[in-house]
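User: quick one, fold this
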Amino acid sequence: MFQKAVDPATLCDHCPSETREWYSGSSSDRDKEDHLRKGIILAISGLALLAGCGNQGDKASQVPLVPKWKGAPYRLAFDTKAAKPNPAGVTIPGIKYTANPDALEKRASLVVQFDVSGATKAGPMMNKMIMFPVDISGAEGALPADYMAAADKDLSRFLGAYCIKGKVKISVALANSSLSSQAGDAEVDAKRLSDWLPIEVVFKNPHPKC
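Assistant:
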């Protein structure tokens, strides 16, 4: 009345060869599917990792580079040594310069602005003088002594002509050598190679006429 339970594995011993091949084939297919699924997951993970690295690279490339040199191509400083007495009646201290190595000039002109508020002579007046070009070389140096002596004489002529005495506020700057000797403020600003460097000097007119 009762049938004995039969182990399916023992049944396969009596199965036709086609049936045995079907059982073994289904197991192999499942293994292939598992390997394929794992391969797809690994590939997606790898692509996500590469995408993350690419974004970091893009962010790094978007970071602005900080320039090594900021501001005007030349920086000026007055010599700290005591100025020698000058027969011209006024002495502009020696001027040293430091330049941007990537924006060096071979020649430049010194521009001197001076305060004419202390003038006692009426009439039209200029408030700046533009020196002739002078050779400059290297990333640092100083304007030649004879060039500065010429600047002292020219400044003395202006101050003496306007009857200015005593302390005078001046500012100096370097400009491109192409600057005209009669250039206006706009042209001076457009061709300046340095910022203005202010100082106060004393003028004693060697030939007083006022």
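User: anything notable?
Assistant: Residues 8-62 form one domain.
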